[in-house]
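can u do me a favor
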């Protein structure tokens, strides 16, 4: 094969490897998060009730360019390599990002984060969103086990895990944006348990 074809092929296969697939559920579309979503991200994420439950690395007060700088510097360079960040969109309003599911290879100990705009809480959206992401992690990305965590007291996040077959393995000290939160629950989901749960 001529060198130029070989280079084109290599570029194509790299592109394919680094692309993040669009995932669909009954009510949601999950699309690769990009800079184009920064203003929706900023609008919905800049809310203490959303941010207080997240790691203390998230700045509060949230800077005006917080979403754009997070997407540009931490998400986009790693998308599809060791991090997969999907924006969540309602099928009934498919152009507005209302939340995200963030998956990463290197456990901290957890491999996933998520948030949803407050006005959409309590409708089962996050439980719905994590299902295709979990399928993708086990079936396409080769994870054999996923680790999740939430602040002790974050009942909604805990419930999403309970509803998706995860097993609580312990409680450890952890730091969050809300200084009153001082511990997190650590959960595990093994591929074989997920496949049984899905069946
Ligand atoms: C966590 C979060 C993503 C959940 O999203 P959601 O779409 O509302 O979640 P779901 O509707 O799928 O499930 C939430 C479950 O928690 C339950 N729940 C919510 N608040 C609760 C509370 N205070 N006490 C007990 N259960 C509660 C809901 O009733 C629901 O369970 P059910 O279906 O059995 O009734 C959303 O609350 C959020 O963005 N929180 C702020 C950011 C955050 O905490 N991210 C996770 C960090 S680990």
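np, heres the sequence
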């Amino acid at each position: 094969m001529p060198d130029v074809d070989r280079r084109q092929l290599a570029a194509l296969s790299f592109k394919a490897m680094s692309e993040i697939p669009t995932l669909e559920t009954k009510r949601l579309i999950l699309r690769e998060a990009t800079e184009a979503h920064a203003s929706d991200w900023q609008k919905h994420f800049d809310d203490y009730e959303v941010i207080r439950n997240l790691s203390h690395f998230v700045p509060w007060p949230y800077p005006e360019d917080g979403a754009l700088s997070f997407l540009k510097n931490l998400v986009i360079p790693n998308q599809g390599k060791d991090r997969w960040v999907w924006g969540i969109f309602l099928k009934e309003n498919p152009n507005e990002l209302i939340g995200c599911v963030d998956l990463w290879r290197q456990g901290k100990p957890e491999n996933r984060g998520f948030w949803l705009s407050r006005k959409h809480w309590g409708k089962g959206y996050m439980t719905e969103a994590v299902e295709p992401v979990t399928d993708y992690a086990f079936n396409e990305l080769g994870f054999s086990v996923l680790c999740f965590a939430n602040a002790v007291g974050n009942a909604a996040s805990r419930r999403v895990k309970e509803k998706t077959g995860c097993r609580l393995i312990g409680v450890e000290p952890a730091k969050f944006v809300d200084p009153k939160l001082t511990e997190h629950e650590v959960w595990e989901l093994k591929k074989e348990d997920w496949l049984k749960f899905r069946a």
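Residues 50, 53-54, 114-116, 121-127, 150, 154-157, 159-160 surround coenzyme A (CB under 6 Å). hope that helps!!
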